[in-house]
Amino acid sequence: MLHREQVMMIRPQVASKFKDQQDISQPASFDEKNRLSTDIDAKLNKLHLQTFRNYKIAHLDLESDAVVLIGPNGAGKTNVLEAVSMLAPGRGLRRARREEIGYLDDQQQREAYCPAPAWSVFANLNGPQGATSVGTGCFAGQPEGARRAVKINGLNAAQADLAQVVTLSWLTPQMDGLFIGSPSARRRFIDRLAIAFDPAHSGRITRYEKVWRERARLLADGQADDKWCISLEKTLSETGIAISATRSALIEDINRESRHLTSSFPLVRAKLTGQVTDWLADGHPAIEIEDRILYAARQNRLAKTSQMPGPHETDLVMTFKGQSAHLASTGEQKALMISMVLAHAVLQDKRLGRPPILLLDDVAAHLDSARRAELFSLCSDISGQIWYSGVDTHAFSALRQTAQFISVSHGQLFQ
Length: 415
Prior knowledge:
Layout: H1 4-15, E1 43-52, E2 55-61, E3 66-70, H2 77-85, H3 106-110, E4 119-127, E5 130-138, E6 149-152, E7 155-156, H4 162-165, E8 168-171, H5 183-195, H6 200-221, H7 226-260, E9 270-273, H8 275-281, H9 286-302, E10 315-320, E11 323-324, H10 330-352, E12 357-361, H11 369-380, E13 386-390, E14 404-408, E15 413-414
Helix pairs in contact: 1-7, 5-7, 6-7, 7-8, 7-9, 7-10
């Protein structure tokens, strides 16, 4: 079994060789007796949207630690949550393409072709660096693939810089299908959670995917120089071990944190499968695993196949009542996802002192009244702001005295 000390040694040993990436952010030591932080109040105070989805313009003044968006289906509740999620690095909770996000008026919607419209999201917030203003968006007519603009306290910044000023986590109905979806979707889910503790994880994944594509292209074109392929495979093996170690450490921590949550929500019993993950779990040294990967890659290459062991083979497996989670009911799967997201949020609060702002889209839909009440209680113990959305006001009646309710109606917000 790979112990935490061994995992922590693997990360800098492997990843520090990549000079063009961020430095490794070592997680703080974990103390089971730590209490949730009270000195950091992670919350949005103001939110302003302009030509975002179905909002031509919208503004919210936020006062509460809990926000409840209420409105009929299609009114724009998830669009507000998506706007908040754009304050984090990446493509937001829908993973939407840039051209899908901007507001289109009636005439533009009827046109056969319309250039990608501009959109922007601006917020004043309290986060790890105190009071901060954050803005992000795209200009009209930007070329396809162009990065969205980011400003922090009025200064141009990179998307990666957002992770330093705000921490966000979310749960959406689309994620309920995680158990029956593709392994790649489950890997993306784990990687998004891992980046909160190891910001350099994102850079390693980008590097791994780029080098993987380059190797695949060379092999497909029949232009594979042996020395160049060995160089690419060495990079893939080193980077892949670091990625796998980070994922494994995270899953181990989430499983443990779930056991410490006092609730009726199911325990998280998750594990990762895949050749490299198994070697790490068996306690093999990183240098030995690297040699195994390189040997397998060369043998497969000589056999005219491009396969090699790596994090691209990893899958997340969760069990519920002794069987695979994909066999559980919809309500049970929802409860499992809630358990995992809450354990991750509490872990951030305990270890990093950086509680996330949680976005829980339509989370009450498949929970009975007792489970809803317990969810609200668990969330209230987290030091970050909680955003809920739903159709039925009654489902959130327990929050009436503490939360800020916002009515959503066809691209308009009423406080």
